[in-house]
């Protein structure tokens, strides 16, 4: 996808932590360390830092703020109400954590494994974010070069009305469709081509801006006039995209520079993390054992069978 807006820039390559896992991870950390320094949790916080006490435990303002920072949409335009709702959720979480400790669930081997998995995931993500954060911002020249090298996204940007057809076929038929689809000059000709081959394709019509189209496809669509098509192979299927309409909607450099800068920064972060992980693997001693020995990458690790 293309960086028309910062929200569409590519995500940082990291250990995945879906938003839906945060409540579970929060509970895991509560079980691991106590969710506010309750019994045996160290010195008492200053009253200004304490948002609520729950039996012998404490929940701090910082804990509330941490949740709000992870979920900015929750706090948007309603910081007071959002903070109160977060605190109520943390209170429920702390009560459940205290009940779990009272029931000795923190000693259950399955819970211990989940706690360790959560701790490992959070530490890995923190390290990757620290590596990514060391990157420099994109220069004005780099932004200019990106803008100039992607005219289909910016100076020659278009809004496309596309007909998408998808058919599954054998190798010979796929090759024939790929060769002939590009020679058609209308949606009707595409339909006739598929009818001759005996297919009843899945079909839909979609409207998409240039930045919502994969770059590999956009590069081919950007040179097409309405009525013309491009075909792509995807496994056993062929997808044929016919341009029904293309409306010019250019974006000036000054409008695009923020999104381009964010995109390039995220790309640089991803590359930094990838290189750092490659270095870690190169320096590590990794031995695959048992049934996993067969999956050991060639030259990358030893295997014990």
In short:
This protein is of the alpha+beta class and 305 residues long. It contains ten helices and eight strands. Residues 5-42 have low confidence and may be disordered.
Distance between the termini: 43 Å
Question: For the residues shown, what is the average pLDDT?
Answer: 84
Would you identify the regions where 5 or more consecutive residues have pLDDT less than 50? Answer: 5-42
Say how many strands there are.
8
Total number of helical segments? Answer: 10
Rg, nearest Å: 27 Å
- Give the overall shape: extended
Give descriptors for this structure.
two-stranded antiparallel sheet, Chitinase A, domain 3, alpha+beta, 3 domains, 47% helix, 305 residues, 8 strands
Structure description:
The protein has 305 residues and is of the alpha+beta class. It folds into three domains: 6-132, no CATH class; 136-157 and 252-305, no CATH class; 158-248, Chitinase A, domain 3 (Roll), CATH 3.10.50. 47% of the residues lie in helices and 17% in strands. It is built from ten helices and eight strands. It has helices at residues 22-33, 61-70, 72-75, 79-102, 109-132, 140-149, 171-181, 187-196, 215-221, 253-283; strands at residues 50-54, 57-60, 158-168, 202-209, 229-234, 237-248, 287-289, 302-304. A four-stranded antiparallel β-sheet has the order 4-3-6-5. A two-stranded antiparallel sheet has the order 1-2. Strands 7-8 form a two-stranded parallel sheet. A hairpin with a 2-residue loop joins strand 5 and strand 6. Helix 1 packs across helix 4 (79-102), helix 1 crosses helix 5 (109-132) and helix 2 packs across helix 4. The longest helix is centred in the C-terminal third of the chain and has 31 residues, at 253-283. The chain starts with 21 loop residues before the first helix and ends with a strand. The relative contact order is 0.14. Mean pLDDT is 84; it is low at 5-42.
């Amino acid at each position: 996808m293309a960086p028309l807006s910062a929200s569409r820039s590519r995500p940082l390559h990291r250990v995945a932590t879906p938003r839906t896992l945060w409540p579970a991870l929060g509970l895991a950390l509560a079980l691991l360390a106590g969710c506010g320094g309750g019994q045996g949790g160290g010195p008492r916080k200053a009253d200004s830092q304490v948002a609520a006490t729950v039996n012998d435990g404490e929940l701090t303002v910082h804990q509330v703020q941490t949740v709000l920072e992870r979920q900015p949409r929750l706090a948007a335009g309603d910081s007071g109400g959002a903070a109160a709702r977060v605190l109520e959720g943390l209170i429920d979480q702390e009560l459940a954590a205290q009940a779990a400790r009272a029931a000795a669930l923190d000693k259950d081997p399955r819970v211990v494994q989940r706690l360790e998995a959560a701790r490992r995931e959070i530490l890995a993500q923190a390290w990757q974010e620290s590596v990514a954060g060391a990157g420099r911002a994109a220069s004005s020249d780099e932004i200019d070069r990106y803008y100039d090298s992607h005219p289909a996204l910016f100076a020659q940007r278009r809004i496309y009305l596309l007909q998408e057809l998808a058919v599954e076929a054998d190798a010979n038929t796929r090759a024939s469709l790929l060769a002939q689809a590009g020679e058609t000059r209308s949606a009707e000709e595409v339909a006739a081509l598929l009818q001759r081959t005996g297919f009843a394709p899945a079909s839909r019509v979609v409207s998409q801006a240039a930045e919502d189209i994969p770059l590999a496809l956009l590069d081919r669509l950007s040179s097409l006039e309405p009525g013309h098509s491009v075909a792509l192979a995807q496994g056993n299927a062929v997808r044929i995209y016919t341009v029904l309409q293309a409306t010019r909607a250019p974006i000036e450099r000054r409008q695009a520079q923020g999104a381009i800068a964010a995109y390039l920064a995220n790309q640089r972060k991803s590359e930094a993390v990838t290189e750092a992980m490659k270095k870690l693997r190169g320096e590590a001693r990794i031995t695959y054992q048992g049934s996993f020995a067969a999956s050991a990458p060639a030259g990358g690790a030893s295997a014990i069978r």
